[in-house]
Design a protein that fits this description.
The structure is a single chain. The chain is an all-beta fold. The protein contains no helices and 11 strands. The strands form 2 sheets. Strands 2, 4, 5, 6, 9, 10 and 11 form a 7-stranded mixed β-sheet that branches. A 4-stranded antiparallel β-sheet has the order 1-3-8-7, with no helix packed on it. A hairpin with a 4-residue loop joins strand 9 (about 90-100) and strand 10 (about 105).
Length: about 110
């Protein structure tokens, strides 16, 4: 079955960086677009970034443009989210999403706090 497993979250200070990973299995990863979402406590889940199947196009939420970078390695069935200059308000659980299958990972917690 389709599985998405996120990792790389943690506690960082404002201005620091983190790199999230999402390992996919159970489907032909290289054929499909992938997305990162996040959900903060008491808020709706929001789209952070997306990438096409071959990685030729990406899109970002306005709030993260210039600071976050989504990428993928189809040989490893993995999608990444490099997050730089993190802000306190970006504390959230970050999720990987494969819309073709409607699948979500369990999420990885990112906490930005001084």
């Amino acid at each position: 079955q389709v599985q998405l497993v996120e990792s790389g979250g943690g506690l960082v200070q404002p201005g620091e960086s983190l790199r999230l990973s999402c390992a996919a299995s159970g489907f032909t990863f290289s054929r499909y677009a992938m997305y990162w979402y996040r959900q903060a406590p008491g808020k709706e889940r929001e789209l952070v970034a997306g990438i096409t199947s071959a990685g030729e196009r990406t899109n970002y939420a306005d709030s993260v443009k210039g600071r976050f970078t989504i990428s993928r390695d189809n040989s490893k069935n993995t999608v990444y989210l490099q997050m730089n200059s993190l802000k306190h308000e970006e504390t959230a659980k970050y999720y990987c999403h494969a819309p073709r299958y409607g699948s979500w990972g369990q999420g990885t917690q990112v906490t930005v706090s001084s």
